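Worked problem 6 (solution included).
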Amino acid sequence: QVQLVESGGGLAQPGGSLRLSCAPSGFTFSTYAMTWARQAPGKGLEWVSTIYNDGSDTYYADSVKGRFTISRDNTKNTLYLQMNSLKPEDTALYYCARYSSVGMDYWGQGTQVTVSS
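Solution. The predicted structure is:
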């Protein structure tokens, strides 16, 4: 069955960095675009970034553009989100999701990112 497992979250200071990872299984990773999304406390789900199956194209929400970088290693079956210049408003539960023709169809359990001094 399809599974997505996020890791790498934690506590960071404003201006700091974290790198999130997502380990997929149960499907051919290299044939799917992948997405990161987040949900801050008391707020709705926010799309963060998407990467094509081969990494040839990436897209970012305006709120993270220039600070976050999405990447993937299809040889290691791993999706990444490098987060730099973190702000308190980046505090959220971060999810990776598989992106198919019907949208984001499978989600991980999330990894918590807290940005605080």
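Discussion: The mean pLDDT is 97.
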